[in-house]
Design a protein that fits this description.
Layout (H helix, E strand, L loop, with lengths): L2 H15 L3 H16 L6 E4 H8 L3 H13 L3 E4 L7 E6 L23 H4 L3 H7 L13 H11 L5 H10 L3 E2 L2 E2 L3 H53 L1
Antiparallel strand pairs: 1-3, 2-3, 4-5
Helix pairs in contact: 2-4, 7-8
Length: about 230
């Protein structure tokens, strides 16, 4: 894969694996390191020095490394001796696909300074279009009303707004992502309640009809018994 394809492949896998900030930072650090040494792959890195650069504990570093391996993005193996230099491999790299431009180290955006080593995770995520990271904007009552009118669903926009405003615009335990989807769910729930109410009404009507028939039968039986007594 080309460099751009490697990045796109990473973000495609992010949809499935939902990488943590540490996993994102580590992958792009390894990618930067591979680029800085002319796309030598695999390449060696000190486990302890790399962990110090990120100011992570050993467990956090090992977890991020293992999760990237499970996602098929990297491979690695340790070595014996002092320093524990690991051999890392970026999966998918074909060095003959990279132009000379990419054989040079990137700009200071990917420098080894601690502040930049973190890779500005928020910026990386924002540059990647992913629906999971779209910011939810609370709709106005007018917007809700217009959407409900367009769907002819009879939902009271103010009631909908007040309900979710009181819940902090959360669905279950999570923040609402799409208020239009919430309206459609509201529609289905209203329909279920209406259908259930109609069923109860019909059931009650059948019970009432059955009770009336039984009462009529009892009444006729009582009347017939009374007539027999009179004739007797």
């Amino acid at each position: 894969m080309t460099y751009i394809e490697l990045i796109n492949d990473f973000w495609q896998k992010d949809i499935e694996y939902a990488f943590s900030d540490k996993e994102i930072a580590l992958y792009f650090y390894l990618l930067k390191t591979c680029n800085s040494i002319g796309w030598k792959n695999p390449f060696g890195l000190s486990n302890s020095i790399t962990a110090v650069k990120f100011n992570w504990g050993k467990q956090a570093f090992d977890t991020a490394k293992l999760n990237l391996q499970k996602a098929g993005l990297i491979d690695f193996k340790g070595s014996h001796g002092r320093g524990k230099v690991y051999q890392y491999e970026i999966k998918g790299i074909q060095t003959d696909q990279f132009s000379p431009t990419f054989s040079q180290p990137f700009s200071t955006t990917f420098s080894d300074q601690k502040a930049e080593t973190s890779l500005d995770i928020d910026k990386i995520r924002n540059n990647n279009y992913n629906e999971r990271h779209v910011v939810f904007v609370i709709p106005s009552v007018t917007e809700i009303e217009e959407y409900c009118l367009a769907r002819v669903n009879g939902i009271n926009a103010t009631q909908f707004f007040d309900y979710y405003q009181s819940k902090g615009w959360c669905v279950g335990k999570g923040r609402m992502k799409d208020w239009r989807a919430a309206i459609r769910t509201w529609e289905r729930n209203v329909k279920k309640n209406i259908d259930y109410g109609q069923k109860i009404t019909k059931d009650n009507q059948r019970i009432d009809d059955s009770a009336r028939r039984k009462a009529e039968i009892v009444e006729r039986a009582v009347r017939a018994t009374a007539e027999c007594d009179i004739r007797g």
